[in-house]
């Protein structure tokens, strides 16, 4: 079945997702947090209260059955994550349950492929209050040419003509993808060399959302004083793949309660571009 542009507006059935303190710890380690971030990597350190990284929303804030069933069929080996945003109403509890509804917000014909944009809203099952929403787009290689709207192009972000106000570099492990996948994304593109070769890579690549989590940690520590309550929103576009073992440098240009950011590897390749970040007032 070809891509169906009439699927725009399709809403999913509500989907519930529960997480525990252990899930929060595993995610933190999966995006590179360690002994210098014990609030996120331990639950029983003296005089430290466990907290959760804000980008954990991408793990529990997606889903909702039925959205992708109506857009058509595609080869999952040719799927590339395009953009991702998280918008938080406050700190995520260390354990909880959310109900998520997803909506297809756009289907675009890029010629060489199709872009599918979605938005998901997650509410706390116990209170009925929204905890966060996420936005995402994926690029389906080889699925374009169906005659649809091309949609927006570019990131719409212009970086200042000066050096960044903040810059942090983190190193990923050569086994980073094997840790991150335990939080739920078992796509063999990130673990199986043969599957990665089918997708055109000489070895498995790092999950885009793992790179996103590393970037979110940098924003949290550099701009929020490591306080998740001050982390408002983060959005950016994935522009190149990252390989496990790469270094990731996050550069930030601050303007009041907001900032622009981008993430680069040690090779000078921009891997997250057009980043926008907003603080929450607490």
Mean pLDDT: 94
The total tally of domains equals 1
Tell me the CATH superfamily. Hotdog Thioesterase
Order of helices and strands: EHHHEEEEEHHHEEEE
CATH class: Alpha Beta
**Which CATH architecture?**
Roll
Give the spatial strand order of the biggest sheet. Answer: 1-3-4-5-2-7-10-9-8-6
Walk me through this protein's architecture.
This protein has about 280 residues and is α+β, with helices and mostly antiparallel strands. The chain has one domain: Roll (Thiol Ester Dehydrase, Chain A), CATH 3.10.129.10. About 15% of the residues lie in helices and about 35% in strands. It has six helices and ten strands, in the order βαααβββββαααββββ. It has a ten-stranded antiparallel sheet with strand order 1-3-4-5-2-7-10-9-8-6. A hairpin with a 3-residue loop joins strand 3 and strand 4 (about 115-125). The chain is globular. The model has no long low-confidence stretch (mean pLDDT about 95).
Topology of this structure?
Elements: E1 15-19, H1 21-30, H2 38-41, H3 57-60, E2 79-88, E3 96-109, E4 113-124, E5 130-141, E6 166-171, H4 176-180, H5 193-198, H6 208-223, E7 231-238, E8 247-255, E9 258-265, E10 270-279
Antiparallel strand pairs: 1-3, 2-5, 2-7, 3-4, 4-5, 6-8, 7-10, 8-9, 9-10
Quick recap:
The protein has 282 residues and is α+β, with helices and mostly antiparallel strands.
Keywords:
6 helices, 16% helix, globular, alpha+beta, 10 strands, ten-stranded antiparallel beta sheet, 282 residues, Thiol Ester Dehydrase, Chain A
């Amino acid at each position: 079945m070809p891509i169906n542009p009439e699927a725009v507006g399709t809403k999913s059935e509500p989907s519930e997702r529960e997480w525990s303190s252990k899930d929060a710890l595993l995610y933190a380690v999966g995006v590179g947090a360690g002994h210098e971030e014990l609030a996120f990597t331990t639950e029983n350190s003296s005089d430290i209260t466990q907290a959760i990284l804000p980008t954990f929303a991408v793990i529990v804030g997606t889903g909702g059955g039925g959205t992708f069933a109506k857009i058509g069929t595609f080869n999952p080996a040719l799927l590339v994550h395009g953009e991702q945003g998280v918008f938080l109403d406050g700190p995520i509890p260390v354990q909880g349950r959310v109900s998520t509804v997803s909506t297809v917000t756009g289907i675009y014909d890029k010629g060489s492929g199709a872009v599918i944009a979605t938005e998901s809203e997650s509410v706390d099952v116990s209170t009925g209050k929204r905890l966060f929403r996420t936005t995402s787009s994926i690029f389906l290689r080889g699925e374009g040419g169906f005659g649809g709207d091309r949609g927006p192009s570019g990131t719409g972000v212009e970086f200042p003509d000066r050096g960044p106000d903040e810059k942090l570099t983190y190193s990923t492990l050569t086994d980073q993808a094997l840790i991150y996948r335990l939080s739920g994304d078992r796509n063999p593109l990130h673990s199986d060399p043969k599957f990665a070769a089918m997708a055109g890579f000489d070895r498995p690549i790092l999950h885009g959302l793992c790179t996103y989590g590393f970037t979110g940690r940098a924003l949290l520590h550099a701009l929020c004083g490591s306080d998740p309550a001050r982390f408002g929103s983060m959005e950016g576009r994935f522009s190149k793949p990252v390989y496990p073992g790469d270094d990731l440098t996050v550069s930030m240009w601050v303007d009041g309660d907001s900032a622009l950011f981008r993430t680069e590897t040690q090779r000078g390749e921009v891997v997250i571009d057009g980043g926008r970040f907003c603080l929450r007032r607490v």
